[in-house]
Specification:
Layout lengths: L2 H12 L2 H7 L5 H13 L3 H6 L8 H24 L2 H8 L2 H12 L7 H19 L7 H7 L4 H17 L10 H20 L7 H28 L2 H7 L2 H14 L5 H19 L2
Helix pairs in contact: 1-12, 2-12, 3-5, 3-11, 3-12, 5-6, 5-10, 5-11, 6-8, 6-10, 6-14, 6-15, 7-8, 7-10, 7-15, 8-15
Main location: membrane
Organism: Variovorax beijingensis
Membrane topology: Multi-pass membrane protein
Length: about 280
């Protein structure tokens, strides 16, 4: 399979994450994150049984992997629970833009150009439209009561994934199979937090089915094939392809939730994707 097909497969899987997370939003977030990440790590278990080096990474790299996988998904599931999911999903997809804006801060030898700043303002405008547009739509009452705080985890998850993606360029190259270790450690940590901080929850058969789909798909296979794509293909082309994710994710989420495509959602999606493409093309 070519790097482009690997990337497109990962994008297709990630497009289902918000919909699956919304369907499972009744579960405690630590429990949901932990079970899904452990299930997602399963494909790499046979590899480490054959070769222990498949999971051999420095502690710094392991800490970075846990930061990225655990932090991103936990905050995203919190956002989908406390903010209208379509708008929270759009705000979360500021991460490609954050990668562009944060690159000069986190990576040596990278500079920020005026076009990057213009893209940042455009992306911020898109996030503002997504958030403020909820006042007159579904979830308006909840937003008024909670003071828009539910969008903060969406911004936080975008920042974590962008910074994780950039910091992977500053650590020693690790095998793709090590992502299974990141998921397993993150999942165990999350379940420990669930045991200490959350009330026990009973899972139905449907819950387990959705968890398996979530774990093996957007929280499992997607990370493995995405890593393969980045290591074998042109990262610039693959980065541009990633902007298909918010389009597919938002369309699927609208279908699942039964919400109509409003002008604010369409405008927010257009602004955020345009900002990300603009930022990626600025050299």
């Amino acid at each position: 399979m070519s790097p482009t097909l690997h990337a497109l497969f990962a994008i297709a899987l990630w497009a289902t994450l918000a919909s699956l997370g919304t369907a499972l939003s009744h579960l405690p977030p630590f429990l949901l994150t932990g079970l899904a990440l452990i299930i997602g790590s399963l494909p790499s278990w046979p590899l480490v049984l054959r070769d222990r080096a498949a999971w051999r990474v420095p502690p710094r790299t392991l800490a970075l992997g846990v930061y990225g996988l655990f932090g991103f998904h936990f905050l995203l599931f919190i956002a989908l629970r406390h903010a209208p999911p379509v708008e929270a999903n759009l705000v979360n997809y500021l991460w490609p833009l954050f990668m562009v804006v944060l690159a000069p801060v986190l990576l040596p030898g990278v500079s920020l150009r005026p076009l990057h700043l213009a893209a940042a303002l455009l992306g911020f405008a898109g996030a503002a439209v997504a958030i403020l547009g909820t006042r007159g739509g579904a979830g308006a009452g909840a937003i008024a009561i909670q003071g828009y705080w539910g969008f903060l985890p969406a911004l936080g998850s975008a920042f974590i994934w962008a910074s994780y993606s950039l910091w992977t360029k500053r650590v020693e190259t690790f095998p793709t199979s090590a992502i299974g270790l990141f998921g397993l450690v993150s999942g165990v940590l999350s379940l420990a937090c669930h045991a200490l901080l959350e009330a026990p929850a009973a899972l139905s058969g449907k819950d387990w089915l959705l968890l398996v789909l979530c774990g093996l798909g957007p929280l499992g296979a997607a990370f493995f094939v995405w890593d393969m794509a980045l290591k074998r293909g042109d990262p610039r082309r693959i980065g541009i392809l990633s902007y298909l994710t918010p389009l597919g994710s938002t369309a699927l989420l609208l279908l699942v939730t039964g919400r109509p495509l409003t002008w604010t959602i369409a405008l927010a999606a257009l602004l955020i994707i345009s900002a990300a493409v603009m930022g990626a093309r600025a050299r």
